[in-house]
Design a protein that fits this description.
CATH topology: Rossmann fold
CATH superfamily: Alpha/Beta hydrolase fold, catalytic domain
Shape: globular
Number of domains: 1
Strand content: 15-25%
Order of helices and strands: EHEHEHEEHEH
Helix content: 25-40%
Number of helices: 5
Distance between the termini: 12 Å
């Protein structure tokens, strides 16, 4: 099983749990976007589809922040450009941002799609995420057909959250992957 990490706006730095997972876990690679600072939804979705097609194995998506919105748009768009619609087995979506906020720096991702995912999905949220109210995240998780996990007050669950390699997140990922084994 191939794990593709999908960072959000500005990419994930060295202290981010995604970066640490890429170094720690087997078969993990980052989907590299062309423009991390001023992303366009259509470009990011095409890059995601290209990365999925390039993978030689089944895929699990591990998204953070804007990577979650990109994943939701990719699903809502019918997973465009993907040769095998069953190739993506699951998604772990960590702190999806409120893309509809007036001050959100990537307006092309608004509004957040409300579509049931065709594969198992788990959403992880923080009680004090500065980029999204918990009630909104809970509503999205319900609409997406996702399992929801709360981590307490951990901010945006990024490098500043002090999670290091985030073992709890790894456990949720392992449980999600276990659901996909046929």
């Amino acid at each position: 099983m191939r794990i593709l990490t999908l960072p959000g706006l500005y990419n994930s730095d060295a202290s981010h749990w995604q970066t640490r997972w890429e170094m720690l876990l087997p078969d993990v690679s980052r989907v590299q976007q062309q423009n991390w600072d001023t992303p366009q939804r259509s470009e990011w979705v095409v890059t995601l589809s290209t990365a999925i097609n390039a993978a030689t194995d089944e895929v699990v998506l591990v998204a953070h922040s804007l990577g979650c919105a990109m994943t939701a748009w990719w699903v809502a768009s019918g997973m465009p450009g993907v040769n095998d619609k069953n190739k993506v087995r699951a998604a772990l979506l960590v702190t999806p941002p409120d893309v509809g906020r007036a001050d959100f720096p990537a307006a092309s991702f608004a509004p957040m799609p409300l579509v049931v995912f065709p594969f198992p999905v788990c959403v992880v949220a923080s009680e004090n995420d500065p980029w999204c109210e918990l009630l909104l995240t809970q509503e999205w998780a319900k609409n997406w057909g996702a399992e929801l996990h709360l981590v307490g007050a951990r901010g945006h669950i990024n490098g500043e959250s002090g999670l290091d390699s985030w073992e709890q997140g790894q456990q949720w990922l392992a449980a999600l992957i276990a659901k996909t084994i046929r």
